[in-house]
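The instructor's notes for this session suggest beginning with a concrete chain rather than abstract definitions. Hand out the sequence below and ask the class to guess, before any prediction is shown, which regions might be ordered.
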Amino acid sequence: MSSLKNVKRIAQHYGDLIVERAQLELGTRRSMKSGRGKTYSGRKVATDTLRKNLSVVLSAQKAKFSLEFGAKGAASKYAYYVHEGRSKGKRPPIHELVEWLRRKGIRPRNKETGAFEKSTEKKLEGIAYVIARSIGKYGIPEFPYYRMALKKYDTEMSDALLDAVVEDVNIVFDKEGI
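After discussion, reveal the predicted structure:
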C-alpha cells in the first residue's frame, strides 16, 4: 500500500492555511452583539494568546487521516469557550476572571466620583463576581473561528485532496505494473 504522501502533503498544507485563516478571524475587528443584545465593536479576544497558539496536527494511521485543530499552552483552557460560546446557567471561575482583569488593566472606580481606586484583591474579586454573574445569566455567544476558516477552503481543499488521492493511486498502479 502507498504511503499516500501527496494526500499527507495536501492535508498538512490546507491544515496550515485553515489555522492561518482562523488566526486572521480572531485578530479582525468587527461589530458584535453582547449577550444582552447590545452591539459593540472590537476583537473577539482580549489578548493574542489564543490567536498565536492555534495549531493543527495531522494524524495518519495506514490509510486513515485526520486533522485535529486546537490550541497549545494556556490558550487550550479557554479556546473551546471562545469557539463554542458558553451557555446560560453556569458561572466561570472567579480566579480566572481576576487574572483577566489584571491582564486587561481594568481597575475599580469610586461610584460617586468616578475616580480610579486602588486595585485590591477584594475589589477585583468583587468585579469578577459581577462579571461571572452576568456570564451565568446571559452566557457568551459563540465565535466559531475554525468553522469560519474551514468554510473558506472546503471546496478547494476537497478538490485538491481528491487530486492527491488520484496521484497516489496512479503511483501505486505504476509500481505494481498494472
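Then share the key points. Residues 22 and 145 are 5 Å apart (CA to CA). Residues 86-139 form one domain.
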